[in-house]
Amino acid sequence: MAEVVLMPQLGESVTEGTIGQWLKKVGDAVEKYESLLEVMTDKVNAEVPAPIGGTISKILVEDGQTVAVGTPICEIAVEGGSETESNAPTGGAESSVPSPTSLSSETIPPQHVAADVSAKDGESLRGRYSPAVRRLAAENRINPDTLSGTGAKGRVTRQDVLKAVEEQSHTAEVKQEIADNSTVQTPAANNARTAPVSPVPLVAGATAVIDPDDEIVPLSSIRNVIAERMVRSKMTVPHAWLMMEVDVSGLVALRDRLKEAFKAKEGVSLTYLPFMLRAVIQALKAVPEMNAQWNGDSIVLKKHINIGMATATDRGLVVPVIKNADEKNIVGLAKVSQDLVKRARSGRLTMDDLNGGTFTVDNTGAIGTVLTYPIINAPEAGIITMESIVKRPVVINDMVAIRSMMNVCISFDHRVVDGAEAGQFIRLVKDNLEAIGPSTSVY
User: Does the active-site annotation cover 414?
Assistant: First the structure.
């Protein structure tokens, strides 16, 4: 007989997932707990293990499709059973693939603006929409009752709400365009007169100009998810940005002195990253407002410090998380960060590795940058980048000296914190890094 595998729930508030890619095909043998497929959600990219051993008899949901948690996605024929028998619920799988949003229509799409919802009304919605949908709808003043759901059995999904947000924004832009262009100045003889003009339909973004010899590369599933997350973050989070210069001459000298003995003793390289992580952790403990998340009508101060590390892989950007990072010293941070990066680049991260981040660090200096403006990993309150360490002349006590300098940049959610808190935080990161010297212990 064939056992049905369902779309797993990869997080407490996750209600759907996108098939990134199948790692097995029909006819392949699979062992219990062997990786079966990659699933992407708005919170996690993870490999899903096979719940039983057997042979893949059917794949019910193809790469790139988005379906609700609990939807049958494949069938595994168990040895000794008939592949024609199935434990799948009658009626088969109901899959949901969000339709692409098009803003190039000449008609203005309807708005889905909600009036203020009372607490009582809000409670009545709890059983009908997921927490993620309710929160996103509330943040953008969208009434989910007005939306046509594309999820299983007509359920309203996060993509449905995001589409409504884009339509709402588009409507406002079109109305503004109409107002701005209701009259234009056109020359006539030696005078100017006004003439009405028709509004030009607006689009979400400029489309590519394709020449005959250009190559068109279809979006991979993970690139599609990254694009959606980045657009959503920029659309829904008011980004603010700060930068400070840091003199890391003491850090450079300490690392140069310790790195060979450290590698021999600990088995991992001593990079700058664990020192930077430790400086951020200490600053988060001093300014807990930065270790927080926006929650629509409240701000959640996170109890644990879980640092996400933006990591480039050949399949796209992932953010593995160091759990309880404040409990680790430099050695511990060096070992866990290098282990996560290694497993990220080999595709061996678990669901737990990608969940629960409270603040993100991006070591952009590793690729040579000196100034970046990172996009916040929502719903976190901030993301900080460490830029390249560059030797340059600086003035110290009215004298010019050559120092190892590094820029530190932070993007923060201005709904959660103001410039004062963000400035205090980045100043503490600077102070922590500049305090590193010959006597600093890595243990």
Answer: yes
